[in-house]
Automatic annotation (TrEMBL):
It comes from Urochloa decumbens. This is Sialate O-acetylesterase domain-containing protein. The keyword Protein biosynthesis does not apply. Residues 31-265 form the Sialate O-acetylesterase domain. The lineage of its organism: Eukaryota, Viridiplantae, Streptophyta, Embryophyta, Tracheophyta. Residues 1-22 form the signal peptide. Pfam families: SASA. Keywords: Hydrolase, Signal. InterPro entries: Carb_Esterase_6, SASA, SGNH_hydro_sf.
Amino acid sequence: MAKLQPVLPVLLLILLPASTAAGHPGGGRMLVFILVGQSNMSGRGGATNVSWDGMVPPECAPSPRIRRLSPALCWEEAREPLHAGIDVGNVLGVGPGMPFAHAVLAADGKTGAAAVGLVPCAQGATPIANWSRGTELYERMVTRARAAMAGSNGGGELAAMLWYQGEADAMSREDAEHYRGRMVALVHDVRSDLGRPDLLVIQVGIATAQHHGKFLGLVRDAQRAVTLPNVKYVDAMGLPIGSDHTHLTTEAQVQLGNMLAMSYLETL
Ligand SMILES: *[C@@H]1O[C@H](CO)[C@@H](O)[C@H](O)[C@H]1NC(C)=O
Ligand SMILES: *[C@@H]1O[C@H](CO)[C@@H](O)[C@H](O)[C@H]1NC(C)=O
Ligand SMILES: *[C@@H]1O[C@H](CO)[C@@H](O)[C@H](O)[C@H]1NC(C)=O
């Protein structure tokens, strides 16, 4: 036994940085995605305004290969609700992040990725004006994205920003008319602040407006008119909506996660 003692500290030195700093236990390449928007990106699948049913389908189950950046900016194993501690003041449920990560990992032959790192940043009911450069939510997102990369010890690769927002901008004509300009500015600012002028952005086309807002069509037109390079669009129109008539169901979130993954994989 005495002979083994000197070995232990050396082993710890070798093992600790590999398992903690790399962001995921296996090491290797980790694709990092920033998740931004309002409630449907955060996730309300299975949730009412009072509680969440706790149902987690296999497509959303935790996996050692799916990490999330915690509110305290550390990598940890991801689990539903993915936005716990981030989307504050709301009852949270299932969102598109976990099924998206599973679908991306299923294509690891194509991506070569050992893990997926999710950086949840969404906040319910926020208009796009709440996300312009200098706002609290924008700065939190940039801080989290930078911490995600710094904490992945060279193994992280910032792969895309997933954006599902706009329902709150469909309530007033003025907001709807400003949407395209605000989104273009946001894409420029995020790319510039993260030092990635080519960063892939995948927008989700909104399906209905918040509070029966009348300007859904204008916001959808604005979303499709963001014709910058490397900005993609997937459409949520037609996905099943929950009994609250406001949010995507768990099943719909699984579908949306798969659609987002397909859109990402098409870019490779
Ligand atoms: C929750 O939603 C129900 C039905 O839509 C409504 O009657 C109730 O007032 C809401 N409760 C809260 C706490 O918002
Ligand atoms: C959104 O912007 C409004 C108006 O500036 C502000 O009152 C509100 O606190 C902001 N909300 C968030 C979540 O940043
Ligand atoms: C969530 O998404 C559904 C489907 O697109 C939409 O009907 C609803 O308005 C959205 N809810 C909010 C609060 O953004």
